[in-house]
Amino acid sequence: KAPSASEHPKEVTEVIHGVDVRDDWRWLENIESPEVVQWIQAQDERTRHHLEQLPLRKPILDRLMDLWSGERWLLPRKRGAWHFFERGDHGQAFLDVYRSHEPLGQGECVLDRNELYKTEGLACSEWEASPDGSLIAYSLSEKGSDWREWRIRDIAAGRDLDDRIVGVKALSVSWDRDGSGFCQCRLEPPLDGSRLVHPARTTGVTHHRLGANQNEDQVVFARSDDREWVYTCEATSDRHYLIISTSRGTAREVEVFAKDLANPWAAAVELFLGAPGRYSYVGSHGGLAFFLTDHAAGRRRLVVVDLRGPQAGDVTEILPELGDVLCDARIVGDHLIALFLHNAYHRMLIFDLEGRFEGEVRLPGRGTVELGEAAPDDDCLLFSYTDFLTPRICFRLEAAALDPTAIARCSIPFVADGYATEQVFCTSRDGTRVSMFLSGSRGALKCRPSPVFLYGYGRGGHSLTPMMYTWMVPWLERGGVCAVVNVRGGGEYGRDWHQAAMKQHKQRSVDDFVAAAEWLVATGRTSNDLLSAAGWSGGGTLVGAAVVQRPDLFAACVVGAGVLDLIRFSRFTVGRAWLTEFGSPDDPEEFAALLKLSPCHNIRPGVRYPATIILTGDHDDRVFPGHSYKFSAALQAAQAGDAPILLRVEHGAGHGPGVPLTKGLAPIGDALAFLAHAVGMGGAYAHGDDPPIS
Fold first, then answer.
1. Chain-centre distance of CA 466, in angstroms?
2. Three-class SS state of 657
3. Residues contacting residue 450 through CB under 8 Å, at least 6 positions apart
4. Mean per-residue pLDDT for 88-115?
């Protein structure tokens, strides 16, 4: 039995904008205090007690490990005469980095991530080879943290240089043309060193010269001395210019600059300033840089600017806004290959460099495409394709061709024969039409009702497109249906779809998710006692709000690493960057909407909540684990039914990458087994014998 809020001596009530806001579980924000550590240990014991009773727990985890035992790879990047790519098989904990003269060829391993983890306990996340392919810069992190250490390896010598860049949040490097150094966009630790709690500080764009000490690195670009600006940088394919984008947090307004890499100390050239909208660099050709932008185009258009001497307003439109969302583009020879999002799945169209349509690439189905890198002198483009039932395929597309050639396939021990995906549409509370994909065996899709796993996200303009979610397979193989819903707040239909669920309108994401659940029940696809819901990160916020608002809809829920206290989220880690997404608690109008939506603040005592498992990592320095702790405690204290409310903390793990395969799959397997049990795939819960939580 969890202690109730009224029994705990540390309840807090604040008056915010004239409103009494009660926070009974504020003490759980002090995540390293002895009493919180003891509380987590008790939660661990209670959760283990439940999970160990689940008959499907081991079979599901074994099946997940089996699904990851085949060959896996990511698209190659060409550097000099070499193709660099990630590959792994036989259930390796991490994908190793290889280089080969052929795309995805046998090649040589240049970065053994598994050995690094085995010998040093550090996970390699990002890497980038030098322009000639002789050096590789790579990042290391501990326990899934977003904080990095960067090293540089001489590939031929098989050893690291003396250079070390430590204690930064930097997710990429942009090499100088001659490989003598690189630029980075860095975040540094807060002044008090509390990396799991207080916000990081922006440094700007720094330049590191090989052989120099980190303390000698120079800031070569900063928009101002305001430490809340966020920077990204990317070198053009010819390594002549560095394209720098700046914004405040996740704000839509982005300013873009170009720096001459031959002279890092030269002043940056202003490309896009003052105009509202996002600009994404996609490629260059003959001194011209191509950008996608949603400025004056909610579904994006393609523009070009001359880097050799741009003047204010000297922007030429190549592709106007069309009916579908323009997602990405590549310049290959004299052709423009553009990727569009149509009803939440991808289409590839080919144009000439003046925007004249040449044809549509024939894809295997309605799925997700990732475009590889390309230089103007390339005669082909590599891209990958996947959908809900198709593992990733690597294709080669000749510059002017419409039929791509498959050159490699990820091998997953899953036979898709007998399974299908269908796209349906439901109507949200305000009449908005919402897309949803249903995948399952043909029998399960026809069966009424079936166990359904409903999955959503809906934040930051991130789109959920059809791809092989390996974790779906054990559910499908047991007769279940997986439903992926494209709620507002995502980017499936462009800027307006995203902005429709920002700030005071964030509730619309939840309304769309609830509408999808209600449609599944109303059409007989499932029933309330067979319906489960899950979300991670932004999806964790979504499902947390849905289960609090409509506990009657679901048999079970997974709330993974969600932002769940919407009154105090901006006080922790990178939370201030989300003010433009959620709104600010300091603004009275936005505060009122946040308080109404905040999962932690809308849990009601005496309500029968569905079986719920809350997932987090104790080293999550992106979404503060205190969110999950407080939500779990409040839900346990309020629960009037006998369905379990469990907190599962993955120790030594962060928000996502950076942990070995077994550690990454364990919480997924537990969550699937938890949901399967709740909807009757594996029997009934044994209630009433939980060890007490003190």
1. 15
2. coil
3. 440, 444, 479, 480, 481, 525, 526, 530
4. 94
Q: Is the distance from CB of 151 to CB of 138 less than 8 angstroms?
A: yes
Please report, as a single letter, which amino acid is at residue 511: D
Cβ atoms of 133 and 81 closer than 8 Å? yes
Output phi, psi for 330, to 5 deg.
Answer: -140, 145
525-538, pLDDT tens digit by residue?
A: 999 999 999 999 99
Give the span between the Cα atoms of 652 and 659, in whole angstroms: 8
Secondary structure letter of residue 329 according to DSSP = E
* pTM recorded for the entire structure: 0.94
* Tokens, residue 363: 């894809």
pLDDT of residue 275: 73
Residue 396 three-state SS: strand
Secondary element (H or E) of residue 25: none
Residue 217 neighbours by CB distance under 10 Å:
19
Beta strands of 263-334 (E only): which ranges? 269-272, 279-285, 288-293, 301-306, 315-319, 325-332
Nearest CA-CA partner of 512 in 532, 484, 531: 484
Contact partners, residue 15, CB within 8 Å, separation at least 6? 21
pLDDT tops 70 at residue 684: no
Cβ count within 10 A of residue 503: 17
Distance CA(466)–CA(422), nearest Å, equals 11
- Measure Cα distances from 462 to 456, 538, 539, 556 in Å: 11, 9, 11, 25
How far is it, in rounded angstroms, from Cα 221 to Cα 266? 10
Residues 6+ apart with CB under 8 A from 90: 69
273-303 per-residue burial string, b: 16 or more CB within 10 A, e: under 16 = eeeebbbbbbbbbeebbbbbbbbebbbbbbb
In contact, 262 and 252? CB cutoff 8 Å:
no
Q: Please report the sign of the dihedral spanned by the C-alpha atoms of residue 166, residue 167, residue 171, residue 176.
A: negative
**Which band of pLDDT confidence, cut at 50, 70 and 90, is reported for residue 310?**
low
Give the count of alpha carbons within 13 A of 276, CB side only: 6
Q: Are 412 and 423 in contact (CB under 8 A)?
A: no
Task: Let me know if 462 is a catalytic residue.
Answer: no
d(CA 54, CA 452): 19
**Mean pLDDT along residues 410-436:** 97
CB 340 within 8 A of CB 327: yes
Distance between CA atoms of residues 522 and 219, nearest Å: 58
Q: Which of 141, 435, 537, 628 is catalytic?
A: 537
Which helix (H) or strand (E) is 190 found in, with range?
A: none
In 3D space, the residue among 466, 493, 432, 524 whose CA is nearest the CA of residue 294 turns out to be 493
The two three-digit tokens of residue 216, written as one number: 């000698």
Sort 265 into a burial class: Cβ within 10 Å, 0-12 / 13-18 / 19+: exposed
Catalytic annotation on 101?
A: no
From CA 237, how far away is CA 283, in angstroms rounded? 7
In the numeric block, the tokens 């001194």 are attached to 287
Catalytic-role residue among 285, 601, 655, 677: 655
Residue type, 390: T
356: which 2 tokens? 């004249």
